[in-house]
Amino acid sequence: MLLIEDLHVSIDDRQVLKGVSLEIQDGETFILFGPNGSGKTSLLMTLMGFANYNVTKGKITFKGKDITHAPIYERARLGIGMSFQRPPTIHGLKTRHLISMCAHHRDREVDVDALARKVNFDQFLERDINAGFSGGEIKRSELLQLMAQKPSLLLFDEPESGVDLENMALIGNTVRELLNGSQEPKLDLSLKDLRAKRHTSGLIITHTGYILDYIHADRGQVLHDGVLCCEASPRVILEHIGKFGYKECVRCLK
Ligand SMILES: Nc1ncnc2c1ncn2[C@@H]1O[C@H](COP(=O)(O)OP(=O)(O)OP(=O)(O)O)[C@@H](O)[C@H]1O
User: In what residue span(s) does the ABC transporter domain sit (predicted)?
Assistant: First the structure.
């Protein structure tokens, strides 16, 4: 589904990604770890196509199409959706209107109120996007946009940040539903069959790993100073970082 080859990205004159290569298959969920400032958000912003992130070398292919220099709307139309760490406030744009726009491409009209009720967000629909929203409310607003858009590749930048434990369950379960599509996985399926049934892929940044309690994450890696290293199961990586910190990752780069 997503193929990133030798991606080099600069913001102004500063190189933030220094040769990232990564493949995410249909239905696969990939977890990205890394210390502050290592380039994780920059990777997601580049995949979404934001202008400040200049691809100086490398290629991004999505569903077989070269999207390295494609505009944001084309990537969204192809099926890439993103939940931001710190999304902007948009005065003058009601949440209801944005949710309707996110669902615009779908065949059937979406019941925005019913969708919002799923994430306890119906009472926020008449408010401007993110205007005065708390950390947890911002996350629910982001999720609601994705639920309306139904992308086939979900990019999540720290779904747990600013979320209390009670809301974490709501957010974790909603992320799982988005990744599984409408289909809840049956417990008796093998991992291979489970993956074959999922068509939505995920690329999720986490510092705490709380999200791992709710989703099935297939693979993980650490991004260290703009370079990927330490590929392992996400739980193993989390445990390793907890014990030794990120400086141990440097050993994998040698
Ligand atoms: N618009 C910008 N202008 C200048 N530098 C930027 C800009 N955006 C990001 N950077 C720099 O690029 C580097 C990577 O930032 P990025 O946000 O991708 O890191 P991160 O791994 O997501 O960090 P965190 O875990 O703290 O969220 C940082 O040093 C950051 O200051």
Answer: 2-250
